[in-house]
Amino acid sequence: MDLGSLASITIVDVYVVSALGAFSLALWVVRRYIGWLLKLVPGAIAMLGTLITYGAWQVGESAGWDTPGSPGILIVYFALGGGMASAAAGWIAFSIQVSRWYRRGMRPSSPPPADDQRVRVALLIALVVGSLLSAYRYFRSHQSSHQADVARLEYSPNGAFLYSLDTSAMLKKWNVRYRYEARRWRVPGAEGVSALLPSGDGKTLVALHGSELRSWTLADSQEATKSSTLPDIVAAAPVDGSLFVAVAAHDVSLRAYADVSRVDRTSSLKAGALSASPCGDRKVVVGTDDSKLHFYAVTSSLDELVTPYTPPLEVTPRQIRADRTCTHIVVADGDKKMVVIDLLNARRDAVAQYWLPAKFEISNAGELLLGQAGITGYEIATRATEPIFNHGGAISALAISPRGDDFAIANRREIWLRTDSRHYTAPEVWLNGRAELPSPLRLAVASIFGDAPPPAY
Q1: pLDDT surpassing 90 at residue 307
Q2: Which of 95, 390, 401, 437 lies in disulfide reach of 374, CB 3.0 to 4.6 Å?
């Protein structure tokens, strides 16, 4: 059942709302005492305002009422003014209250009507609980996408989910449509991976770590379970939601996410493989150390296709990216050289050295996205460049969705979703991380409700 945005409600939200509800009930039960506490509010405001005024004055004196090159003194002036206003209002209200008590001799027989007292207490409870709820909502809406820098991004094969892996090996699964964090796992041994391949059913994660292909089972627990490893793998590329291609030094093999150790089909290479990328529907392109590209189609077998005519690469294909139609291929050799191959027109264009090294992907609109300190779009058809995204900080990961012109950007700890790769002013959405209970509270809740993992949401 599709719950829509309601699915973004977390167990922490339930805990907080339940606690605030219980707190409201407790305050109402002891409302008699709250009525007496209300009488202390003017005096408390007066004392607090006086202390703030005194503190701000001391800070201003110590700074000589000037902070060259910093707006800090403005904060002191605002604090001083606010403290003086609060102190004046508090002392005036307290004086009026004391005079009333004196005139009636503080007789216990003259309290305000019961209904009036209940209304005042109810308003105070609403104000306190509403303020706490607003503070929690502010806290919840300002959680970073990750608590560590994001290292890898990858969409699910159908584009419904986005997977993000940070440098602390925390993997998160995001609902792209409703833009919330759906699941998270700790993935032991996933630090420093160079490729990320989630299965279509969301139960398996395959990643390339150095020359070792590793797979994990993504179960209902908070930690992924390592299932198997393959040595001597130089690249991997997805085919669909159930199959992927693993590229060894001298062969290409088709494997299933469900059992990466079993070879489904294989094909040998005459040269040493260096890189691979999906290239159109159920196709893969492999780059070899003789500066050539090899194309494979996955049908009833793993067939190498007749390579279309391409100009000499003149670059070692250590990194390859292809668009969804397999019309354009970008080949790079680290920070040495990058070229764009147009297979339809048999044309090769060199990308200026200025843009290297860069994270790069080809969008579904034919735009080469170059990520450094921001993202620049290189329109392959016209070879024109323009800025696409800039929020400060280095771009740590990029991913292209199989849907439309959608793509995802990791800007250090933050993740942004965009639906237009051609224009700087295109709308974008920031993925708000999920609030978590602090460790002491989490342990306390676990001890009360048991050690079972929190429900999957």
Answers
A1: no
A2: 390
User: What does the alpha-carbon distance between residue 442 and residue 447 come to, in Å, rounded to a whole number?
Assistant: 9
**What is the rounded CA–CA span in Å between residue 202 and residue 47?**
58
Q: How many CB atoms within 10 Å of residue 51? A: 13
Spatial contact of 415 and 406, defined as CB atoms under 8 Å apart = no
> How many residues can be counted in the chain?
457
| Residues near 386 by beta carbon (within 8 Å), at least 6 away in sequence | 376, 377, 379, 424
- Interval 175-214: pLDDT, tens: 999 999 999 999 999 998 999 999 999 999 999 999 999 9
Q: Are strands 338-342 and 347-350 parallel, antiparallel or unpaired?
A: antiparallel
Between CA 397 and CA 205 the distance in angstroms is 18
- Rounded to whole angstroms, the Cα distance separating 89 from 79 reads 15
- Please write the tens of the pLDDT for every residue from 107-124: 554 555 666 667 877 888
Q: Report the distance separating Cα 434 and Cα 172, nearest Å.
A: 10
pLDDT digits (tens, 9 = 90+) for 395-425: 999 999 998 899 999 999 999 999 999 999 8
Residue 131: exposure state from Cβ atoms within 10 A (0-12, 13-18, ≥19): exposed
Spatial distance between the Cα atoms of 447 and 457, rounded to a whole number of angstroms: 21
The amino acid occupying position 334 is G
For residues 61-70, average pLDDT: 71
3-state secondary structure the chain: CCCHHHHHCCHHHHHHHHHHHHHHHHHHHCHHHHHHHHCCHHHHHHHHHHHHHHHHHHHHHHCCCCCCCCCHHHHHHHHHHHHHHHHHHHHHHHHHHHHHHHHCCCCCCCCCCHHHHHHHHHHHHHHHHHHHHHHHHHHHCCCCCCCCCEEEEEECCCCCEEEEEECCCEEEEEECCCCEEEEEEECCCCCCCCEEEECCCCCEEEEEECCEEEEEECCCCCECEEEEEECCEEEEEECCCCEEEEEECCEEEEEECCEEEEEEEEEECCCCEEEEEECCCCEEEEEECCCEEEEEEECCCEEECCCCCCCCCCCCCCEEEECCCCCEEEEECCCCCEEEEECCCCEEEECCHHHCCCEEEECCCCEEEEEECEEEEEECCCCEEEEEECCCCCEEEEEECCCCCCEEEEECCEEEEECCCCCCCCCEEECCCCCCCCHHHHHHHHHHHCCCCCCCC
Q: What is the spatial distance between Cα 219 and Cα 302, in angstroms, rounded to a whole number?
A: 31
Nearest C-alpha neighbor of 184 from the set 407, 448, 435, 451: 435
Which sign does the torsion angle of CA 26, 31, 33, 35 carry?
Answer: positive
